[in-house]
């Protein structure tokens, strides 16, 4: 009998790759998306999976819709990927960010506790929880203290602790995946990696003439979403619920990202890049670098993509889609 998986945020970068991975492993896949008025673009990342997955409208803030779906589906695994996930935007809409991320997760845990205690839950935690705290060796790991520097990071700390609480208090199989930055051709173009690649490709094709960024000195640990969703599934099939950092262990600045992309396109980045206060955070998170030795040792996970192969894939993708109104994923 096939396992059933239920994914919140299934239409996002991670949700679409996770749906593919689960289908490849003979799951039945269900998901919810929040309804908006522009339905034509809402499912672009999932169009190729039509007739293979079941998607309905739903919202983490509507607990009745969660209850109805969980009771009907009776999922073996629930992946909570839905969130207001843009860190910079969380400073502009802090109340919505915290409500959607924190109260949304609470609604999901209460639904499982009351109606489906045998369902396993994956909570999408984030490296942004570490914030300004870095261990002496320059890494962040499962034991590193949380000191978030954004409303987004603060909301994710709540969700992390909520997961542990429901695991201990109610004996739920609930896991935290503490994922560091992960990108792909499916990353939204308002996130820095896609913004840099897409704009550079458009500059190459004489469709844009400048790239405006925020802090170029911020360092991030960038991996590929396709690798990281496999880690999610490994955690859910572990012998016990636990918390795992997922990262590459390598860090690069935004400036180094730009240097790589512009060099690949044979462009002089100094001619095109400028900075604006508009894209600066009120409190900058300057450094993230994860130690994923625990998940490598205990679950055998390892990334297949390098930073270079990931960015090359993104350059190729935007080379094909830089002038299109409808993206072809």
Could you please describe the fold and organization of this structure?
This protein has 329 residues and is α/β, with parallel strands linked by helices. It has helices at residues 13-24, 63-73, 87-92, 94-115, 151-169, 192-204, 225-236, 254-264, 293-299, 307-321; strands spanning 4-8, 28-33, 54-57, 77-80, 120-126, 174-179, 182-183, 211-213, 219-220, 223-224, 243-246, 252-253, 273-275. It contains ten helices and 13 strands. The longest helix has 22 residues, at 94-115. It is globular. The model has no long low-confidence stretch (mean pLDDT 95).
Low-confidence stretches: none
Order of helices and strands: EHEEHEHHEHEEHEEEHEEHEHH
Distance between the termini: 31 Å
SS elements, strand count: 13
DSSP helix fraction: 25-40%
Spatial strand order of the main sheet: 3-2-1-4-5-6-11
Output the structural class.
alpha/beta
Strand content: 15-25%
The best one-word shape is globular
Tally of DSSP helical segments: 10
**Taking all residues together, what is the mean pLDDT?**
95
Radius of gyration: 19 Å
Task: Report the biggest beta sheet as strand number plus sense, adding barrel if it closes.
Answer: 7 strands, parallel
């Amino acid at each position: 009998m096939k396992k059933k998986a239920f994914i919140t945020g299934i239409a996002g970068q991670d949700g679409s790759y996770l749906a593919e991975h689960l289908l490849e492993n003979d799951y039945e896949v269900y998901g919810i998306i929040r309804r908006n008025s522009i339905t034509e673009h809402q499912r672009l990342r999932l169009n190729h999976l039509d007739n293979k997955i079941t998607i309905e409208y739903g919202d983490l803030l509507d607990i009745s819709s969660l209850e109805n779906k969980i009771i009907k589906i009776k999922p073996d695994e629930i992946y909570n990927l839905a969130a207001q996930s843009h860190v910079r935007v969380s400073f502009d809409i802090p109340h919505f960010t915290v409500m959607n991320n924190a109260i949304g997760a609470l609604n999901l845990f209460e639904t499982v506790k009351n109606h489906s205690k045998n369902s396993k839950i994956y909570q999408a935690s984030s490296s942004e929880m570490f914030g300004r705290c870095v261990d002496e060796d320059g890494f962040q790991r499962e034991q590193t203290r949380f000191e978030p520097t954004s409303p987004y990071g603060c909301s994710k700390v709540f969700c992390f602790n909520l997961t542990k609480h429901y695991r201990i208090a109610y004996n739920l199989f609930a896991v935290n995946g503490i994922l560091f930055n992960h990108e792909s051709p499916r990353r939204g173009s308002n996130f820095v990696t896609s913004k840099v690649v897409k704009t550079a490709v458009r500059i190459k094709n004489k469709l844009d003439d400048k790239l405006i960024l925020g802090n170029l000195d911020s360092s991030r640990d960038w991996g590929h979403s396709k690798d990281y969703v496999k880690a999610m599934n490994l955690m859910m099939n572990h012998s016990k619920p636990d918390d795992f950092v997922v990262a590459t262990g390598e860090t690069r600045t935004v400036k180094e990202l730009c240097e790589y992309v512009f060099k690949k396109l044979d462009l002089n980045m100094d001619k095109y890049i400028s900075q604006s206060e508009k894209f600066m955070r009120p409190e900058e998170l300057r450094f993230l670098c994860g130690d994923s030795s625990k998940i490598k040792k205990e679950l055998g996970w390892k990334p297949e993509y390098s930073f270079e192969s990931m960015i090359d894939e993104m350059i190729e993708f935007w080379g094909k889609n830089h002038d299109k109104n409808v993206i072809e994923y």
